[in-house]
């Protein structure tokens, strides 16, 4: 039987709720839509042609006629003289004299008798090879004179085959993400694939063709963030607020990176890969590549802090809509400061871990600390850490400020006044569910609120802390309404 009481948590969003949500979305769309259109137009105008004209390079993975790259599994490993001649017997020792080399008798994956593969000295010394390892090797046996009387090897180690361990780790990563984050985690993984598609099809070819690196990085990064944020977190005012904060952080990072690359003369001097790229084409700018890398490297962490900060503002306001804008900003920034502290460590140690070989070499040189940090070997990593951290830190208060403006502009307090309970009941789960509808929360968020509300109906006084209510009080009236709802 119906008693004419609208029950919080089960009623549809009111007209006020819908209007408030639309106000929030229109407010953000007025800024983001023109920005998105401008970004897409710039992307179309800057899209690389894909032409490799004027690029000359010799790929180490392209074999000469008669030479092939084969794979196989090691059956046994021996140490023999590097100057050994004649037929390989496979016995350890061989002829005496000269230095010793490591040889791996490898069974080809394509079938046939085991072949004797010589292992590079640096690999044999640093890591070594073991029985059961899968390796890729250069097969020179098809080239006439490859196995001449001087004892030149016919099979040379190239690399390890890592397909199995990397595939297992990737599958484990996907399983863990989806198991914990469920559908949202799955969407985030798909968004990551899309982000790499933009990187490979737009940013990298654009750098090869000599497109403006600053504009290329900004346009590509903005497209990536728009896709990743909305795809993983859904279309909502929270996500739009986080996107605005992210774009601001990107802008600051880009400006600082452009200045630092020029002021610190980051030219990639002494880097073997940089020298290889310079010799490939006159259109490739190493400074431009470094600049683009400085911007892209902080995308993940920047996205993390802005979406977290935006959600924090929404949750705080939903719990207490009467909070003033100043107090709401202050409370959210307490969370932001903790996030800043931990994230700065994350960036610094991530780059330090990637640069460990360089750090060890610099340490062994016994150079003064200031000189080492500003050297060609470390300056790029130091500037990457500083530029990324500054953009990240400044994005947090900006995101918080935008989020406070948006939630205050949505009229959530008026929504609380139109519900079945009074404005003082904003902590009730039903009010939270209605408030979530205003700002466009995801279905998961509103479901959680509805579940909590259902538990309140079952427990009778769960939302009221389990304490008895005074007769005639607002709490007693709520409890009576819930008991009536239970009788329905």
UniProtKB/TrEMBL annotation:
Keywords annotated in UniProt: Membrane, Transmembrane, Transmembrane helix
Ranges that cross the membrane: 26-47, 164-181, 188-208, 214-232, 241-260, 280-302, 343-365, 385-407
Bias type Basic and acidic residues, positions: 444-455, 478-488
Any one Pfam family match given in the protein's UniProt record, by short name: YibE_F
Residue stretches of biased makeup (Low complexity): 459-473
Sequence segments annotated as region (Disordered): 441-488
InterPro entries per the UniProt record, alphabetical: YibE_F (IPR012507)
Superkingdom of this protein's organism: Bacteria
Annotated protein name in UniProt: YibE/F family protein
């Amino acid at each position: 039987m119906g008693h004419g009481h609208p029950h919080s948590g089960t009623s549809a969003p009111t007209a006020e709720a819908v209007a408030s949500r639309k106000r929030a979305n229109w407010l953000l769309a007025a800024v983001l839509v023109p920005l998105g259109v401008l970004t897409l137009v710039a992307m179309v105008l800057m899209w690389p042609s894909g032409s490799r004209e004027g690029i000359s390079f010799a790929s180490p993975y392209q074999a000469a006629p008669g030479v092939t790259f084969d794979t196989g599994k090691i059956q046994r490993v021996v140490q023999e003289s590097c100057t050994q001649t004649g037929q390989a017997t496979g016995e350890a020792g061989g002829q005496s004299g000269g230095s010793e080399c490591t040889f791996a008798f490898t069974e080809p994956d394509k079938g046939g008798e085991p072949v004797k593969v010589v292992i590079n000295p640096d690999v044999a010394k640093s890591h070594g090879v073991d029985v059961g390892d899968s390796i890729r090797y250069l097969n020179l046996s098809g080239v006439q004179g490859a196995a001449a009387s001087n004892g030149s090897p016919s099979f040379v180690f190239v690399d390890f085959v890592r397909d199995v361990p990397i595939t297992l780790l990737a599958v484990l990563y996907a399983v863990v993400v989806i198991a914990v984050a469920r559908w949202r985690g799955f969407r985030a993984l798909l968004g990551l694939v899309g982000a790499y598609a933009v990187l490979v099809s737009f940013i990298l070819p654009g750098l090869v063709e000599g497109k403006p690196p600053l504009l290329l990085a900004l346009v590509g990064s903005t497209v990536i963030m728009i896709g990743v944020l909305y795809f993983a977190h859904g279309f909502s005012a929270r996500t739009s607020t986080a996107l605005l904060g992210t774009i601001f952080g990107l802008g600051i990072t880009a400006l600082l990176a452009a200045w630092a690359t020029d002021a610190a003369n980051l030219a990639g001097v002494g880097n073997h890969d940089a020298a290889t790229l310079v010799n490939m084409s006159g259109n490739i700018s190493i400074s431009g590549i470094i600049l683009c890398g400085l911007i892209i490297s902080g995308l993940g962490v920047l996205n993390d802090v802005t979406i977290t900060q935006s959600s924090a503002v929404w949750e705080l306001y939903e719990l207490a809509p009467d909070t003033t804008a100043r107090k709401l900003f202050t409370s959210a920034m307490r969370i932001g400061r903790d996030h800043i502290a931990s994230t700065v460590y994350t960036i610094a140690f991530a780059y330090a871990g990637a640069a460990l070989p360089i750090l060890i070499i610099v340490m062994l040189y016994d150079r003064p600390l200031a000189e080492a940090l500003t050297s060609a070997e470390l300056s790029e990593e130091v500037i990457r850490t500083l530029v990324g951290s500054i953009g990240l830190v400044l994005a947090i208060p900006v995101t918080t400020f935008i989020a406070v403006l948006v939630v205050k502009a949505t009229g959530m307090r008026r929504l609380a006044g139109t519900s079945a309970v009074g404005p003082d009941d904003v902590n009730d789960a039903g009010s939270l569910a209605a408030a979530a509808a205003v700002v466009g929360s995801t279905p998961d968020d509103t479901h959680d609120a509805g579940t909590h509300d259902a538990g309140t109906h079952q427990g009778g006084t769960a939302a009221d802390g389990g304490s008895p209510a005074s007769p005639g009080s607002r709490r007693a009236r709520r409890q009576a309404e819930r008991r009536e709802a239970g009788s329905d």
